[in-house]
Amino acid sequence: MKFYGRRIGFYIITLWATISLNFLLPRLMPGDPADIMIAKLQRNGGEISETTIRNIKLLLGSDDSSMWEQYLGYWGRMLQGDLGISVTKYPTPVAELISQALPWTIILVGVATVISFILGIALGAWAGWKRGTWVDHLIPATTILQSIPYFWLALVLVAVFAVGLGAFPIIGGYSVFDFPRGPEWTWAFFTDAVTHAFLPALTIVLSSVGGWLFGMRNMMVSTMAEDYVTTAEAKGLRPRRILTMYAARNAAIPSIAGFAITLGFVVAGSIVMEQVFTYPGIGKLMFQAVQNSDYALMQGVFLVITITVLAANFVMDLVYGYIDPRARHNV
């Protein structure tokens, strides 16, 4: 219980620190973020009410209240789900924009990351088990794919499969002409969304599977030299049982810890990939926020990413402490 208590305390302090940093960021930037936002709104929408101006200054710390009062007000608004108003798509609330983009990123990047992890672990375990054979040729092939710049691989896939063969759409998350009112719960929309997501997902899998495969293969080679694997072989256990229950199970523990961190960053999306495919996810939303100096939207996206990463790592810490008792005694 001491292990779990320490981990819970650590993540509570980390969460408080990151939210406080999120509060301070726009106030530490040069210039006045509130004036920049107000000027953008005036250029885009003409006259702005005094209420809107006051809310912007409250949000970004340009009012006459003390920093402590602003800090408490920020926590109060955040706990109520009020993340401010976006300049990029004024007057849409930031929380609404994030809620619209988040499912696209979680489904696409999350599923592609899980597929990449499973493929990498399975192929890496097989390559480590069959080390020195033709299976080892998978390592340089996947390493080359991993070393290719992310955006270049995405552009190649678009040029070949979308432009050249016309097998997949070029951009977007769905066909806006077929579904002008936006996403809907129909089979036609689901198949259309899957078709649009195939090339972005393939880009993620091809770019990341090599890392999982290489790491798992090396851990398998190391694990195969352990005494408990040698003992299992001496007992005459079936090779398949030794592979799954003794070698691969222990070799995968470090990869599981790395997978937790990767899974936490799924919410951040892939800015380059989403920009190339114009995919309506969190990555594209963040790019638009930075491009338009939309501080409220940047703060909201950063907050969601931070909480998700901490939550994923917290859950994996608990799971890791359960599957590997040694971790509980070394902390």
From TrEMBL:
Organism ancestry: Bacteria, Bacillati, Actinomycetota, Actinomycetes, Micrococcales
InterPro entries with a match to the protein in the record: MetI-like, MetI-like_sf
Pfam families (alphabetical): BPD_transp_1
Membrane protein topology class: Multi-pass membrane protein
Subcellular location: Cell membrane; Membrane
Superkingdom assignment: Bacteria
Keywords assigned: Membrane, Transmembrane, Transmembrane helix, Transport
Identification of the protein by name: Peptide ABC transporter permease
Similarity-based family: Belongs to the binding-protein-dependent transport system permease family.
Transmembrane segments: 7-25, 101-129, 150-177, 197-215, 251-277, 297-323
ABC transmembrane type-1 domain segment(s): 102-316
Organism from which the protein derives: Microbacterium murale
